[in-house]
What does this fold into?
Amino acid sequence: MTSLTRILKIVAISLVCFYLLAVGFVYVRQSHFLFIPGIGIRITPADFGSGFEVVDIPCARGCLPGDTLRGWWLAAPAIAAPPGEPAMRSAQVLLYLHGNAGNIGDNAAHSVRLNRLGPSVLVFDYRGYGESRGAFPTEIRVDDDAESAWVYLTQQRHIAPPQIVIYGHSLGSGVALDLALHHPEAAGVIMESGYTSIHDMAMRSNVFRLFPLGLLLNQKFDSLARVGSLKIPVMFIHGSEDTLIPPEMSRRLYAAAPFPKKLLLIEGGEHDNSAAVGGELYLGPVREFLKSLSQPVAAHSQP
It folds into this structure.
């Protein structure tokens, strides 16, 4: 064997070993590529003139000792009533599931915006985010956390399931879909800036295309394969200028979803700002969707 042949063989073996190590690293650490938890909470609904209650949500599924979820409860705004009659509030509750980066502080403004449309809002952090306690997030864990929030609403706040609208933004859209599939008794679900699957998202990267993702992925969030099983009304929202998750993904989800369904594309909207960019073009359709799902108002504040 010549020296050149020996060198080429060593290089080839080294490259194969490096590739296999990279494959193993991607498999083991993929949740760390996907989830980007923010710890410190810098902004609250009070910064936007809204009252709120800090709530601790017991971990109800997939728990370890000490696991707990922390969130905010924004009570439904009072509705004007005739003189002499008590103020009324919508009985509807929106369960807010945020995206993969930051924490509830980064979602405070939108939580307030949705609250001012009428419903109460429960927004919380998954374990490992904000002030919630627990192991680093995975697909299974965040789905379990959404279930814990559902249990909290239905069992501790005694909210009837037909009063609950599930809302998910970005990565949270996949969490919202999973919860909606497990709770067809919910009123409806809103998926904003949604994706078809983590596989499809990874294939947008030239780096991840080098790996056998079909075999490697254990964080799948395969919304496209699951959305056809929905039993409740669904609304898809996407900004036309979203470069992180292309609006075509919401179009594909909409095409695969059963009726009743709605698709709202916000011209000029990016990944996180469709509501701010769209203004009433965003708020009006969302308000009408919530109204189409709403139950009669309650005579008193919710607990």
User: Anything to note?
Assistant: Residues 46 and 244 are 29 Å apart (CA to CA).
